[in-house]
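In the previous lecture we treated proteins in isolation. Real proteins rarely work alone, and many bind small molecules. This record shows how such a complex is specified: first the sequence, then the SMILES for nicotinamide-adenine-dinucleotide.
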Amino acid sequence: MSQTTSTSRVAVVTGAAHGFGRAISVGLAERGVDLVLVDLVDASETASLVEEQGQRALKIQADVTNEGDIARVRKEIEVSFGRCDILINNAGAYPFKDFFELDYEFWRKIQTLNLDSQFLMTKAVVDLMMKNSWGRIVNISSNSIGLAFPGLTHYMASKMGVIGFTRGLASDLGPHGITVNAIGPTATPNGGTFQHGVDDEVAEAASQMQAIKRVGTAQDIVGTIQFLVSEDAEFLTGQTLMVDGGLVRL
Ligand SMILES: NC(=O)c1ccc[n+]([C@@H]2O[C@H](COP(=O)([O-])OP(=O)(O)OC[C@H]3O[C@@H](n4cnc5c(N)ncnc54)[C@H](O)[C@@H]3O)[C@@H](O)[C@H]2O)c1
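The predicted 3D structure, ligand included, written as tokens:
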């Protein structure tokens, strides 16, 4: 693929190979957006689903915690599309670990993946949005920041960080026509990168506390993301929306 400009809007989705990232990518393609699918692992299945919607999909295998990889992502976006309008900072992991078993290395690993990667990816593409005075950034947080599940100290710290990052960034980017919002999904058994994530039992427990008493799916956040990246949401920024069946209220 060597086209240098795209007439469609272009979205970068991190962690696009599975779970929420895949559902978000397909949901954006349904709205006529071309996709850059960034993931540690091969995102071919997501790419096929995007192409079925008649949109272009560029897969990039990259680690969103690695600055060299991120520089390559930026370069490939410029060469293939020449623009970037939407960034969905979704890649993350949610391994449960008791505080007494946490060491600093593991703590840092989770902060780097869940929070630092959002800073690095935003830095890498924001000037492409500024060029057109239009942009939409959606950062994935979690409704767990308002829950009492044990074993999530490291995770909750990172996802609260996402909310602070979102609030701060919205002020700096607003004058450039760029909105920045966050979403807090509920416990959803999507897979879990470290294979110690949300299982059916945790999701079922969460669902019983929700106002809407069913287990969440990746599809549940797609409509809200489609709205947040639309023209209709141009006056909405700096917010975190809990899309969680009414469990956590900010
Ligand atoms: N599933 C849940 O219960 C839940 C609830 C609230 C928030 N979240 C958040 O939603 C996001 C997505 O979760 P999911 O359930 O879809 O997870 P998932 O494990 O199914 O998918 C995550 C994707 O991110 C990719 N990834 C992991 N590390 C990466 C890296 N360093 N560089 C690039 N890609 C990387 C993985 O390969 C995977 O494809 C995460 O930020 C997670 O914290 C999940």
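Summary for your notes: Residues 41 and 61 are 6 Å apart (CA to CA). The chain has a mean pLDDT of 95.
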